[in-house]
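Case study B.
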Amino acid sequence: MAADSTSILQQLDSQIENIFAGWNIYSTLIALVLAAYLISPLFLYTEPDVHPLLLARQSSASYVRQPKESAIFRSLETPPGYPLKSGLNVKDAGQPKWTSGRAGDLRDVWKRAVSGPVDADGKPTGGETGKVITTYGKEGVIDYSFTKLSSEINAVGQHMKAHGGNRVAIHMPNSVELLVTFFASAFYGLTPILIPQQESLDTLAGILMETKADILVAGAGSLPLKELLQKYPNLKQVIWVVERTSRHMDWNEVGEGEGGKAEIAVWHDIIDEKQAPSEFPVDAPENSPANVVMVTEDAWSAMDSYELTEFTQANFVAAIGAQTSALPRLHRLAPTDTVTPLASLAEMYPLTVTLAALFSNASLALTSVSGPKAPYSAAFQGASPTIIIANTETLSSFCKDKERTMSSSLLGQFNQWRKTKTLKAGTMPKTSSLTNTPRLIYTYDKAGASTVKLDPAELFKLKVYSGARTIYAFTDAQVAGAITQTNMLDYQSTSADFGPPLSSVEIKLRDAEGGRNSDDKALGELVVSGPAVVGGETVVHHIMTMTDRSALAYAS
Amino acid sequence: MSDTPAATQAASIASPINLILFSLLILLAYFRLRPSPPSTLPKGPAPVVFRTFTPPTLQPYDGEKDRPVYLAVRGKVFDVTPGKNFYGPGGPYENFAGRDASRGLACGSFDEDMLTKDLDGPLDDLSGLGQDEMQALQDWEDRFSEKYLVVGKLVAVSEGQEGS
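Model:
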């Protein structure tokens, strides 16, 4: 009866005592490590950059859908029932505080760049204006202030207007002169025609013929003028933009009969002779801004064929307005940013983002090394940009090169692993300010025309290697700006989507042979409508779908 | 002699308490480091397909047996299920459910004779209504447009078939 019935509890107690009797220095060590590992998140935890549920439904859908179509998807800023964003919301000084601003046009973009940031009433706050930096290869970097550029705009505009002609074709790499001519056409009522760099003279002559260009602005010596004028004799003026090193040569002298009817002028002569003021001409009917013609390489037909699209000022300002509000509030384009377009400004999306940057008073750093073949490092020669706009080809080759170097060393691999882990947790890994790290990279897919598409794994690696957040936009030739754009704070690497629509367009998917809509899945041809679309509505002939996160994606 | 200190040393590293603590550490590390699936929101209700109704096909939508409540005002069919207390069965306006309510709203009356009797005939053309009544109807239509979703349009049996 007595001592053998030690109760269960007493047996347990003695067992536990035996276990703990083995406590020694190693136990203390392991216990300390355990405690540290348990408590460390209290001190080391960083919140993700964006709440994950905000990425779970990125666009708002309408509650009713027409038969054979999907619901209408719009940005979260402009849900169905609200008007789409159609302008820059420019408030002229002196208007009452509560009026909504007017839509504006391209001239207001330049005027805002000149005046600096404005407050809610439209009065300039006196903040710093940006500047435009141009890198001339080995010659170095030249700064231009906006007032100087305004006087150049006036000089060039007055010259072009005086010598006759309405439609000015701009065939240049990214440069200050391209911007000045573009804005000069806006201020002086001319139609700019932006032509991406053409290698074939026949194609260029064909484009000039179809667009009925009167004036040509091109890099001096970049084209054989005589042959061009033989193919297209209707040019009234030709303006050469001469590099600094070649300015000693006399470009006005042309051979007998070479110039034809065209008057040949030289850019720096126009600027120096005119000495124009930097105030802008008063709004007059003959100076009202005209449409802008963009030339895009045609997606579906053979090489050397192109599509001409005429955009109105309303299309442009809707797209620019949407870009300025597309980014999250804390990460918007700001006067502290320096934007480098590595993609050609003759393409719609880089042009729209650059204009949005100008409108937000950011600085611009231009380099003539631009286009799909430009290397990523070209953005960092002479300037340290915070925002880069690049083609997918540039970024893809950058990723491949970096992958080779990073995978070779153990430290590189460890860094990669650490950064991948931080990204998957939702925060951007911090990079040292010593290296050239932009904060944001814009890139874009042209519906049906892009040669290189970035898949989500590549985009993820791009964030790791470049240290910058990325935006992948879906664009089309008939839409100003972009149709949809990914959220810059979205660091996922599994879903190949293009994000939610911008606030200047609304999208829906219409039944087509390749895909039909159903109650659970939106699938079909993409129909885009809104103020940023030429003609109000356009169809992109690709079968696309909306993912579970309400983002647009190709239907595979 | 030198065996015992080594043996005790080996025993002390692998003592039960050490093994327990170590396995706790491994467990904690596993739960912390395993990848978590991304947060998802449950999918919302699928969008309603816009339909072309005729009076006979509209009539079933009167709120009975969990069906939604629809009513038509000047050719637009509104989904008034959020206002089921008014327009559904047992509510004061239940006569309007599944019917063309235009004349009733214009005249401000819920009587039976405000509704079209013949469902297969032409729609009510609102003849015999004065300025005040048309204004009242317009106000009602505006209010409905703000509050409720338009899910279809109403046409007479002779004009339309179901939009496919």
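Residues 55-86+315-554 of chain A form a domain with the Rossmann fold fold (CATH 3.40.50.12780). The remaining cases will be described in the next quarterly update.
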